[in-house]
Design goal:
The longest helix is centred in the first third of the chain and has 34 residues. The protein has one domain: MetI-like (MetI-like fold). By secondary structure, the chain is mainly alpha-helical. About 80% of the residues lie in helices and about 0% in strands. It is globular and about 65 Å long.
Length: about 220
């Protein structure tokens, strides 16, 4: 394993890069989707059954597709957007498409936990829909949103390991190429340890932020 030790820093960095960018985009898109789904539902502040129905079904559809199937299915889209299906760039499309629905549901659940009376009070005070979104939906349950982000980012680590099997690089790629392909189980164990460390750091940061924003 010593001769491959210098590859661990790059593999770890590649994993972190994919985690950061796919996680960031998924948080933004997931939050937008969650807000639109919440406000357009039948009892929302801007009900629209068709918008709600379409987005709800799209989210359910992509949540139901196993990620290992989603990766090759979206190869054409990766090629169209980034002109490649390999490497970190080629992994971005399936990672984002596979993560956004889960992130959206986590945000939606957090928003729906806000007491209905708070929203009704905001409406009676004459707040606009935009004010309710920014000052109520996005502020009244920040701990719940942080918990949702933490859970989804940890799940995203597993998806990043999967895309490593199709040439995206990262720790998953090392485990497949050396740990499995060359029967170097010591490399597999090191990869597992590094992934556990990353997950533990994410969980620790999430727990600290939840504690800080819990009233």
């Amino acid at each position: 394993m010593i001769e491959y030790a210098d590859q661990f820093p790059k593999a770890t960095w590649d994993t972190l890069v994919m985690l950061f960018w796919s996680g960031l985009v998924s948080i933004i898109l997931g939050l937008i989707l969650a807000v639109v789904v919440v406000i357009t539902r039948k009892d929302g502040i801007a009900p629209n059954k068709w918008v709600f129905w379409i987005l709800d079904k799209i989210i359910n559809l992509f949540r139901a597709i196993p990620f290992i199937i989603l990766v090759p299915a979206l190869a054409f889209l990766s090629r169209f957007v980034f002109h490649t299906t390999i490497g970190i760039t080629g992994a971005m499309v399936p990672l984002i498409v596979g993560t956004v629905p889960f992130m959206a549901r986590q945000f939606e659940s957090a928003i729906m936990e806000i007491p209905e009376g708070v929203v009704e009070a905001s409406i009676s005070m004459g707040m606009t829909n935009w004010q309710i979104i920014t000052q109520v939906y996005l502020r009244e349950n920040i701990p719940g949103m942080i918990r949702g982000v933490t859970i989804t980012l940890i799940a995203l680590i597993g998806q990043i390991a999967i895309v490593g099997a199709v040439g995206a690089g990262g720790l998953g790629d090392m485990a497949i190429r050396y740990g499995n392909g060359r029967r170097m189980t010591d490399i597999t164990y090191v990869v597992i340890l590094l992934i556990l460390i990353i997950i533990s750091i994410i969980q620790l940061i999430g727990d600290r932020l939840v504690a800080k924003f819990t009233r």
